[in-house]
Design goal:
heterodimer, A: about 500 residues, alpha+beta, Immunoglobulin-like, five-stranded antiparallel sheet, four-stranded antiparallel sheet, 15 helices, B: about 290 residues, mainly alpha, Cytochrome Bc1 Complex, Chain D, domain 2, two-stranded antiparallel ribbon, 11 helices, elongated
């Protein structure tokens, strides 16, 4: 690949001698990866991508440091996955392991959101916010800072190993590893108290697993964003395959407008545009592409829709005095419409997008509702099974239950435990007093209180063999109640 | 997504092998695959150096890390015991069951510990939930041969019943029939008497005939009214609970052959805090007094 910038005598626009090395038609499965040297562009989408890069990185690195006081005995970290304590904290939400379905719901919402965004605007996730894209962008920026833009990087790659080249490579890789370590390190902070584990990591006192995952994530960040880059998207990621099923002819995607561009060819200043397409075949779009493809080949699996070719092309269009957005967000349908002489239009509201939006609001609404009305009090009843009932010396029958009271609130609560039964029964409990069918038990903050309750039916109290009872817990302060129905078992009557 | 029809063999290199005009292409394995393979080789060598790896005639190579799963288990157990230490210390000082019952945390620890010890040592005879079997008392009910207070239960667990320990509980239920102490017809009458004591239906005349015999032979232990005596380990004959069965045949067998169940002494086999946890657990199965 001769990447020398050659100014062709027939045109005023420099033509990049660049090949779309990663396009499916040109790459070979048996050949080593051909390096891609994306050229820096400037424009609307590059600015948007810088903004997204800064925003997403800030979210990732800063979130674990956000504090959220929850009172005594609770961590004050806003987002914390506490495996030893078996809790997941997300601002004012505290999830227990048995509420894992909220995480499932969150994943469903994420998937549906991705479906909706993809059907509307194509692979915006891939182009702007996927960690692979963001970190690769960051790594390329570091590379550019050390080695210069596209042409200098190509030149450096061809140079023999001089002291300067070695210095540049060492600095670049060192910076990459540093970013990788910061990335892997930040991951730890989501699972432990961030300030504590940060201090431990630096002092060498953190647990082995922390160092293991730090090392692993440093390595994957370094490899994925440093040397594998577009190969992760092309070969490893399933999303490019799935997204084909989510887009349709009305989806806005980064598109080369063939109707305007073709027939492409070099153009001399002052020459008539009659019979010529707007594309001057300068290859700027290919040189800017981080995926090593040619957008003019049409929509393709390798394209992450990062829109950098739009900026590259707009720059050229401005120079040759043609309308901008020869490459732009457009739909397949509009290409056909223009060819047929119709007016292009954008149809965001389509059955597909309506269905995705409806599913998204339904699941989102259900999640919001169930989170808002989430019970902070729960009662579970485990009956003794060996034996299921006990005959006492006076002939009465006793059932024993282990009542587990789940208090999800961060305060100790005095609760009323009561047993409802149509048949008169006597109640007792280990360590608690029953008066008039109810006992006051204290449940520790954010924990499970276990009470052993005995229910005794006097001899021959019921004509039926078994009868239903219900064990309920009431918080007199808030009126919140929880109830569990069970059965009083007794001897089968002969 | 462009279809690629141009893709052919990646290289025109051949290995030089040729059979009947068929040449072998030289398509090497992907570099990542080869590198991964070499990496596993290197990893294996590193593993041999650091970890136990090669068996020998008398042992095995220990490796520089001196890793041992056995040692890890021992360390885990030590850590667990250290973590439980505070609760165990409190448990060892317990003298009254209320001290445990009124402390929900200690109670939960004790019941969990007790259930585990019970499962390991007691469940074989008394059943997994202490439900008992004929001859092995149900520990959930409120009838206790040797007393159902916390102290009584602890005493029974420590020294057992007819265990051979010098402090063991010992009681004697005579084999009235087998040893010829009473004639068979008197035994039949006594069976009727005992059934009627607990409200069962039996021949009233036979029961009346046996009343003086009961006072003479049985009342010393079971009491004049048959209410039993926990100090002597004599069961209450008037209640609804029968260790060896309350039907005519079972009672007849008991009177004829006597009964002498055995419970081992756990003193010396379990630690004091384990016995305390066990006593609290059994007491709180529901029948404790």
């Amino acid at each position: 690949m001769d990447a020398k910038l050659t100014t062709q005598p027939a045109a005023d626009i420099a033509r990049y001698d660049v090949e779309a090395v990663n396009s499916a038609a040109r790459r070979s499965l048996y050949k080593a990866r051909e390096p891609i040297y994306p050229k820096l562009v400037d424009g609307t989408y590059r600015k948007l991508k810088w903004a997204m890069l800064i925003f997403t990185l800030c979210v990732y690195y800063i979130l674990p440091w956000v504090r959220w006081p929850r009172g005594p005995n609770e961590p004050d970290q806003a987002i914390l996955v506490d495996f030893p304590g078996r809790r997941f904290y997300f601002f004012n939400i505290e999830l227990w392991p048995d509420e894992l379905y909220y995480i499932t719901g969150l994943l469903v919402i994420a998937a549906l959101g991705l479906f909706l965004a993809t059907s509307l605007f194509g692979r915006v996730w891939c182009g702007y916010s996927c960690p692979q894209t963001v970190w690769t962008d960051l790594f390329v920026a570091v590379e550019r800072l050390i080695e210069g833009d596209r042409n200098q990087r190509i030149k450096l790659a061809r140079e023999p190993w001089t002291a300067d080249k070695i210095r540049k490579k060492i600095v670049k890789h060192a910076l990459w590893i540093l970013i990788g370590a910061a990335t892997g390190g930040a991951w730890m902070f989501y699972f432990h108290d961030a300030p504590t584990v940060a201090a431990q990591l630096f002092r060498g006192e953190a647990p082995f697993t922390a160092y293991f995952f730090l090392g692993l994530l440093t390595l994957t960040t370094y490899l994925f964003a440093g040397s594998m880059r577009e190969q992760v998207c092309t070969y490893m990621c399933p999303w490019p395959r799935i997204q084909a099923a989510l887009t349709d002819a009305e989806t806005l995607q980064v598109t080369y407008k063939t109707d305007r561009g073709e027939p492409r060819g070099a153009h001399k200043k002052g020459e008539s545009w009659e019979g010529k397409g707007d594309c001057v075949d300068c290859n700027s779009c290919v040189a800017a592409c981080p995926m090593g493809i040619d957008i003019r080949d049409g929509a393709q699996l390798e394209c992450i829709n990062c829109a950098l070719c739009i900026d590259a092309c707009d720059d050229v269009m401005a120079k040759v005095g043609r309308p901008l957005r020869l490459i732009g967000y457009d739909t397949d349908k509009n290409l056909a419409r223009r060819k047929a002489g119709e007016k292009p239009k954008v149809r965001l509201v389509r059955p597909r997008t309506i269905i995705y939006a409806a599913a998204l609001s339904l699941v989102g609404g259900l999640m919001a509702y169930s989170l808002a009305t989430r019970a902070t009090l729960q009662v579970n009843v485990l009956r003794d099974r060996t034996p299921p009932f006990v005959r006492l010396s006076d002939g009465s029958i006793r059932n024993a239950f282990t009542v587990k009271i789940v208090n999800r609130e961060n305060s100790t609560r005095a609760l009323t435990l009561s047993v409802d039964s149509q048949t008169p029964v006597a109640l007792s409990a280990i360590g608690e007093e029953f008066q008039g069918g109810a006992a006051t038990v204290s449940a520790d903050a954010d924990g499970v209180r276990s009470v052993r309750v005995f229910v005794t039916a006097p001899p021959r109290s019921s004509s039926s063999a078994t009868f239903p009872i219900a064990i309920s817990v009431l918080d007199p302060a808030t009126g919140e109640a929880a109830r569990r129905e069970t059965t009083f078992l007794t001897e089968r009557r002969k | 997504m462009a279809r690629n029809d141009k893709r052919g063999p990646a290289t025109d290199d051949t290995t030089g092998h040729e059979w009947d005009g068929i040449r072998e292409f030289n398509n090497p394995l992907p570099r990542w695959w080869v590198l991964t393979f070499y990496a596993t080789v290197v990893w294996a060598i590193v593993y041999w150096v650091f970890m136990p790896a090669w068996p020998g005639l008398t042992g095995y190579t220990k490796g520089l890390r001196n890793h041992s799963e056995r040692a890890n288990v021992a360390a885990d157990i030590a850590r667990l015991e250290a973590a439980r230490g505070a609760s165990i210390k409190r448990l060892a000082a317990v003298t009254r069951v209320e001290e445990v019952e009124n402390d929900p945390d200690l109670l939960q620890f004790t019941l969990a510990a007790g259930a585990s010890i019970f499962g390991d040592n007691c469940a074989t005879c008394h059943g997994s939930g202490g439900q008992g079997f004929p001859g092995y008392p149900n520990l959930n009910d409120d009838s206790w041969l040797w007393g159902g207070s916390f102290a009584d239960i602890k005493q029974t667990i420590r020294y057992g019943i007819r265990s051979g320990h010098e402090k063991a509980h010992v009681s004697v239920m005579q084999a009235f029939g087998r040893d010829g102490l009473l004639p068979p017809e008197t035994i039949s009458d006594l069976v009727a008497h005992v059934i009627r004591l607990s409200g069962g239906e039996a021949d009233a005349a036979a029961a009346a005939r046996a009343a003086p015999v009961f006072q003479q032979q049985c009342a010393a232990c079971h009491g004049p009214a048959g209410k039993g005596d926990p100090l002597q380990g004599a069961p209450d004959l008037t209640d609804a609970i029968w260790l060896y069965g309350g039907d005519r045949k079972s009672i007849h067998t008991t009177l004829t052959n006597g009964r002498a169940g055995v419970m081992p002494a756990w003193e010396g086999r379990l630690t004091q805090d384990q016995i305390t946890a066990l006593a609290v657990y059994v007491h709180d199965l529901g029948g404790g007094q």
